[in-house]
Design brief:
Elements: H1 10-13, E1 16-28, H2 30-36, H3 42-55, H4 68-71, E2 93-96, H5 99-115, E3 126-143, H6 153-156, H7 163-174, E4 179-183, E5 191-195, E6 201-202, H8 205-211, E7 213-219, E8 223-228, E9 234-238
Parallel strand pairs: 3-4
Antiparallel strand pairs: 1-3, 2-5, 3-6, 3-7, 4-5, 7-8, 8-9
């Protein structure tokens, strides 16, 4: 019989210093085009961006200065739940060990957005722009892809029920765990990272800016197409 929960001691006996080098994360960049529509000059654009920045929630304090892309997820409290974050709680930094894994996550959430939006489920498509970048994840972690955690993969990989992972997150944070490594549901065998604190993220201005890739995404209720703006890479995902 499969175990239905983990032992609390595992959060200490099976916690380790773990790294994911060059983890990929994708973020939507549509807001730049939207802001441009509202201004008539670059000076006005800079002023508008400054005003928007000042209206955002404050950044989470960190032990060392961090690139804004590493801090952004922790500033907001999204209404919807994700695998390791209940709704209306502070966001997490999700990353993938491969670019394809990061594309898979973007594709899934684009499709979810369409299916949850009444005005888009009648067959319309949504076109968005995304920036992918890399950072290193390093800190105290548990690895759900290894024993004994992997024996409970039916909890960590459930397609819709996140109650098991939410309970694990709460206990892990209380135990001082900084991030969790787990296997992607959308891109099997790809390792993903759910990071609870920006202090577990490493990447300076040069490294992050140098890794950036710009992509275009077209999503419908059953298919997502993505292509890098330079035309070199592409990705396709079907429900």
């Amino acid at each position: 019989m499969r175990a239905e929960s983990w032992h609390p001691d595992w959060l200490h006996t099976h916690r380790t210093e773990l790294s994911m080098e060059g983890a990929w994360r994708g973020v939507e960049t549509q807001h730049i085009a939207a802001s441009m529509k509202l201004v008539d000059s670059l000076e006005e654009f800079d002023l508008l961006e400054q005003m928007l920045e000042e209206s955002k929630p404050p950044a989470v304090p960190t032990h060392t200065p961090k690139h804004f892309l590493l801090l952004s997820p922790f500033r907001y409290f999204p209404q919807h739940s994700s695998r390791f974050r209940p709704g209306q709680q502070s966001g997490l930094w999700y990353g993938a060990s491969t670019l394809q894994g990061a594309c898979s996550e973007i594709a899934y959430w684009r499709m979810r957005f369409i299916l949850d939006s009444a005005g888009l489920t009648s067959g319309g498509a949504l076109v968005t722009e995304h920036t992918f970048y890399q950072a290193t994840v390093r800190g105290q972690a548990i690895n759900l892809m290894e024993a004994p955690w992997v024996d409970l993969s039916h909890l960590w990989k459930h397609p819709t029920d996140y109650s098991g992972t939410h309970k694990l997150t709460e206990a892990a944070i209380q135990a001082g765990v900084q991030w969790i490594q787990y296997e992607s549901v959308r891109a099997p065998s790809c390792a993903l990272a759910a990071v609870f604190t920006p202090d577990a993220l490493i990447g300076d201005q040069v490294e992050i800016e140098g890794s950036k890739q710009e992509w275009i995404c077209k999503a419908s209720r059953d298919t997502v197409f993505m292509r890098s703006k330079d035309g070199v890479m592409k990705f396709e995902w079907h429900e």
